[in-house]
Amino acid sequence: MILVTAATKWEAEPLSRLTRVQLVRTGIGPTSARAAMEKIDLKDSGPLIVVSSGLAGALQPGIKSGDLVADVREAPIEFVQSMRATAERLRLPLHMGVFAAVDRVANAAEKRELGAKRMVAVDMESGALRDWTRARGGTFLAIRAVLDELDEEVPGDAPGDGALETLQFAARHWRKLPKLAALGLRQARAMRRLSAFLADWLASIEVRDEGR
Question: What is the CATH number of the domain that holds 34?
Fold first, then answer.
């Protein structure tokens, strides 16, 4: 069983066309992620692979918005090799390293501090998802698209999935609407790249498994 996770509707929708995987909406943050994963029935599901996807913040100056970042420290070497090959084939920048796990949106100062520890990206769900996967003997990978670069900040009260929440968020930040609109366009571009990468990479894993 391959589980691909995404925190929000905005992150999950571009991934909805992925085949032969189960897409899991976790909600935002580690607590919501753990609760969502506990509802999954793994009975007779075969080997477990969990891919934490969605958006992340960059922790190094050379990582740009729209680049892909991956934490594959516990993955088989063939997964790493196929990821590099897929990124090269699609001409997508891919940065590998350790992700930082946080429970709220990190500001620019916090990101610089985490980057000084040689981490490449930060998100709020991958730490909890790794623990859940490890406890069940599965293989965990985090593959995400960068939204905000090292010295950029995103609002800490970003809206959830609902239309009402989005309208309320826009009302609170109306002076920043042009910047928020630009951020939304960057988010859509980043998720298109991630979706294309995952579709190609997951297909390569399926072909390899079928050939065994």
Answer: 3.40.50.1580
173-195 in b/e burial notation, b at 16+ Cβ within 10 A?
Answer: eeeeeeebeebeebbeebbebbb
Buried b (16+ CB within 10 A) or exposed e, 45-70: eeebbbbbbbbbbbbbeebebbbbbb
Q: Is the pLDDT of residue 210 over 50?
A: no
- What value does the CA radius of gyration of the chain take, rounded to a whole number of Å? 17
Choose among 68, 152, 156: nearest CA to 111. Answer: 152
Q: Domain span at residue 34?
A: 2-210
Number of structural domains (the chain) is 1
pLDDT tens, position by position, 113-129: 999 999 999 999 999 99
Model pTM score:
0.85
* 190-205 confidence digits (pLDDT tens): 999 999 999 999 998 8
List, in order, residues 6 or more apart from 145 with CB less than 8 Å away: 54, 55, 56, 66, 67, 68, 69, 190, 191, 193, 194
